[in-house]
Amino acid sequence: MADRAIISSVANVIFGPSFPPNTSVDLRILDKHLYSRVMTYLSLVDKSSTGVWPGRPLVKDFIDAVRSYDLSDEDRAAIFISSFWGFAAASANVTSWLIVFLLYHPTALAKVRNEVDSTMRERYHDDAFKLIEDPEAFGPSSFPIIESAVNETLRLTSNATPFRQATCDLNLVHGNTSVPIKDGDFLMANLRAQHFDPVVYPRPQDFIVDRFLASSQAEHTGVKPGTQPFFGFGAGKHACKGRLFAIRHIKAFVALLVYLVNIELDGGEQGLKIPSLNERSLNVAQMSRDIKIRTKRRHREDTR
Ligand code: HEM
């Protein structure tokens, strides 16, 4: 559910109406026809025969940038598919995990629902259209509990191993030991070691929905708010360039889902353990199994 929603919303807003539909299925089964569909799409955008949508300048810039390299149409499509994958894949995984964590932690779900319902009531007069029309609705200061939940989800599920290449000889000092690094050596970071350090994150295996809220950080960790080492989006000069977009996107999906529908685990899930991380996945781990849920509409929206 989450991957389809995340992928189709990116496709609608950024890639426009002529982007091939059902791409989430094509990507899942790695359908070989996706290449030709993307080639057709790129050529339509290039010929300006596809109308106007918010992400059009970005797609045009991509087409112009790759034109300067002598690439075949198929290679251009392949690069586009990998950028498209970058736009959606990690966000879709984080969103799926976040929903599963909420379903397995009813108190956390109640906190999120309370935040969403009160924001909707006080700020948007219970009108979901007012929410989606507000450009700041999902900005950095909005829905702080959902934002904390995104970080907490990433802390538990990120298996990214960012790497860097040393540009000079140096000694990496840690406590009383030091490791000599030579110019040109590659270094890989073990983020999970940091994210599961009980000194930094007490009860590291637990999903604590408001762990990253400034107001509760000191209480949970004894660490000054905002100073916890967190590397879900990497760090430094090469930290994730799409992180603000990704957080907004996930917030939007979770807030609307929680506001518009009641979600619960399907009866058959009761008693089953939360899925484990599939360690053979990149960046954000995939789930070891699918989860069945039931949804029921909470609010009747008009169809403006
Ligand atoms: C929840 C979603 C996402 C997660 C967890 C994530 C995570 C990461 C991580 C761990 C890195 C490596 C950072 C490092 O080496 O220090 C990275 C790099 C990058 N990400 Fe993301 N990412 C997400 C979404 C996105 C999106 C939506 C975009 C584009 C719109 C994007 C674009 C990039 C780019 C361009 C880099 C390379 C940055 C560089 O090397 O300078 N990411 N991401």
From TrEMBL:
Required co-factors: heme
Keyword terms of this UniProt record: Heme, Iron, Membrane, Metal-binding, Transmembrane, Transmembrane helix
Keyword Kinase tagged: no
GO MF annotation list: heme binding; iron ion binding; oxidoreductase activity, acting on paired donors, with incorporation or reduction of molecular oxygen; steroid hydroxylase activity
Family: Belongs to the cytochrome P450 family.
Database matches in PANTHER family: 24-HYDROXYCHOLESTEROL 7-ALPHA-HYDROXYLASE, CYTOCHROME P450 FAMILY 7
Name of the protein: Cytochrome P450
